[in-house]
Amino acid sequence: MKSTDYLKSKNIEFKIIHLNKIPRTAQDVERIYGCPLHQVLKTLIFIGKTEPVIVVLPGDKRADMDKLKEVTKGNNLRMAKPDEVEEITGYTIGGISPFGIEKNVKKIIDESVFKIKTVNIGSGKAEIGIELDSEELRRAWDGIIANISQKACN
Questions:
Q1: pLDDT tens, residue by residue, 67-80
Q2: Domains (ranges, CATH) in the chain?
């Protein structure tokens, strides 16, 4: 997997998690794996005027479009369609990883992620997750760290 190869190349410690069902959402991972929703990181893909934007945030939060607009310098963003997600990342929805992506993209992770001890993130394959310490994730991160989330509405 490109994502685990990337993490290994950075000497990042992580654990591979084999899921017995294929998740489509962060809530699915919470239910299948049994970890709290805030530990499940979701990777969202947005299409912008100049380049795609990859956004990573805890599963119990949602992207704040005003904050994203500020961080991306007023870039008018829209959610990527499933075929665009696969074209940009090489991954399908349900297992998107922010690592191992070969296309030119802007990456933004919500700063609240680093207040969580252990996080779970997609590996690039829906049935396999990656669990790691958030400080290991910080060492691996090659993008922007910013306040880009808001509490999700229930």
A1: 999 999 877 899 99
A2: 2-148 (3.90.960.10)
